[in-house]
Write a structure and sequence with these properties.
With 180 residues, the chain is an alpha+beta fold. It has two domains: 32 residues, no CATH class; 146 residues, no CATH class. It has nine helices and seven strands; from the N terminus they run H-E-E-H-E-H-E-E-H-E-E-H-H-H-H-H. The strands form three sheets. Strands 3-4-5 form a three-stranded mixed sheet. Strands 1-2 form a two-stranded antiparallel ribbon. Strand 6 and strand 7 form a beta hairpin. The longest helix is centred in the C-terminal third of the chain and has 14 residues.
Length: 180
């Protein structure tokens, strides 16, 4: 389709209310069944080099009871901060190594969404405990060990790679000794 034909089709579908505009450049079918992680798919489309992280990743992996009011998104330390009206986003900056470790791609509503794996997510929650809260980080650690979604050795490796091992170590030891 040419650009003019596409814009005419888009305008007609919006007028017919077949489509709704979510935000600039992002549309969805009006009768689309929106799933809980749908916002993650929208953000992945809008910020292709970002990675879903922290509380949003904990929620995606069923490791918290928290319901984040914003999508937590990791971007590179030198990347331009995205201007997104909707859905609400909380951007955190990661260095190149931390941004590349533990990234998994999940299919959410037909969109490939990069999300940190459970072990890396918990480690990052300890790295950003001032932002997410120590209680959230501890909940994630307890739940990831109890559920078996990550092994203590994976957490240790990520903690060492991101230089947070000295902070995380006593909490991990307590959870492992306690039997989660």
């Amino acid at each position: 389709m040419r650009g003019i034909e596409l814009s005419e089709t888009l305008a007609r579908m919006l007028k017919d209310q077949t489509l709704t505009r979510v935000t600039r450049g992002l549309y969805q079918l009006a009768d689309a069944e929106v799933t809980a992680p749908h916002n993650l798919a929208e953000i992945a489309r809008l910020v292709p080099k970002g990675v879903i992280c922290l509380v949003s990743a904990l929620q995606f992996h069923d490791l918290t009871l928290q319901i984040p009011g914003r999508v937590w998104l990791a971007i590179g330390s030198k990347a331009r901060k995205p201007k997104i009206d909707y859905p609400p986003v909380r951007v955190v900056r990661f260095g190149p190594r931390a941004l590349s470790l533990g990234v998994q791609t999940h299919n959410v509503d037909g969109v490939s969404v990069p999300i940190f794996d459970p072990a890396k997510t918990v480690v990052d929650c300890f790295r950003f405990r001032q932002h997410v809260g120590l209680d959230v980080a501890l909940e994630g650690l307890h739940n990831v060990i109890r559920s078996g979604k990550a092994k203590p050795a994976q957490i240790v490796d990520y903690a060492r790679d991101t230089r947070i091992w000295s902070v995380l170590r006593p909490y991990l030891e307590a959870v492992v000794v306690d039997g989660a």
